[in-house]
């Protein structure tokens, strides 16, 4: 991935994860992230939502271990953007992204409808127009739903693709 593309993705990712917008990613941000997805889907107390919370804690541990250079229990924007090797963080983030699917899919029909998608993004603070565009990018075959395969491909692309036009770059809103 080019340095510029990686920076852009990391900036986007930082903004998504710093839920309270205080300029640091903390464990509370990641828990809030998982909780908001759960709330959007009305899935409080479900096994899927508990698994999502556990994975959010795992991502936090990976972030802290790899990126919290000064050990103050929070990851600053600089620590996040300038990280040289974020393989482990990426791996956990991909897992978190994929596990989110099972929670977002609130009617459990194995695919994310436009309504399910927009509700999640609204909770995460993504602007409706950006959310709509994101849905259209991720619905790669245009059948009106984001399938599990489309979502998994999108999340993988966001974290790993070198292609600045990859649909998956839109997995988390405007790109
Ligand atoms: Ca924060
Ligand atoms: Ca569904
Ligand atoms: Ca589709």
UniProtKB/TrEMBL annotation:
<keyword id="KW-0677">Repeat</keyword>
<dbReference type="GO" id="GO:0005509">
    <property type="term" value="F:calcium ion binding"/>
</dbReference>
<dbReference type="InterPro" id="IPR002048">
    <property type="entry name" value="EF_hand_dom"/>
</dbReference>
<dbReference type="Pfam" id="PF13499">
    <property type="entry name" value="EF-hand_7"/>
</dbReference>
<keyword id="KW-0479">Metal-binding</keyword>
<feature type="domain" description="EF-hand">
    <location>
        <begin position="54"/>
        <end position="90"/>
    </location>
</feature>
<dbReference type="InterPro" id="IPR028846">
    <property type="entry name" value="Recoverin"/>
</dbReference>
<protein>
    <submittedName>
        <fullName>Calcium-binding protein</fullName>
    </submittedName>
</protein>
<feature type="domain" description="EF-hand">
    <location>
        <begin position="126"/>
        <end position="161"/>
    </location>
</feature>
<dbReference type="InterPro" id="IPR011992">
    <property type="entry name" value="EF-hand-dom_pair"/>
</dbReference>
<feature type="domain" description="EF-hand">
    <location>
        <begin position="5"/>
        <end position="40"/>
    </location>
</feature>
<dbReference type="InterPro" id="IPR018247">
    <property type="entry name" value="EF_Hand_1_Ca_BS"/>
</dbReference>
């Amino acid at each position: 991935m080019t340095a510029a593309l990686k920076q852009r993705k990391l900036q986007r990712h930082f903004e998504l994860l710093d839920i309270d917008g205080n300029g640091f990613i903390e464990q509370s941000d990641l828990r809030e992230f998982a909780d908001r997805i759960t709330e959007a889907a009305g899935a409080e107390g479900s096994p899927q939502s508990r698994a999502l919370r556990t994975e959010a804690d795992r991502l936090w541990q990976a972030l802290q271990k790899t990126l919290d250079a000064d050990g103050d229990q929070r990851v600053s924007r600089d620590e996040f953007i300038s990280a040289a090797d974020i393989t482990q963080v990426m791996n956990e983030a991909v897992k978190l992204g994929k596990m989110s699917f099972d929670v977002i899919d609130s009617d459990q029909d194995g695919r994310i409808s436009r309504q399910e998608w927009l509700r999640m993004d609204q909770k995460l603070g993504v602007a409706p127009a950006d959310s709509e565009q994101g849905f259209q990018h991720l619905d790669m075959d245009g059948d009106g739903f984001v399938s599990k395969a489309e979502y998994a491909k999108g999340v993988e692309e966001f974290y790993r693709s070198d292609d600045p036009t990859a649909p998956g770059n839109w997995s988390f809103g405007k790109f």
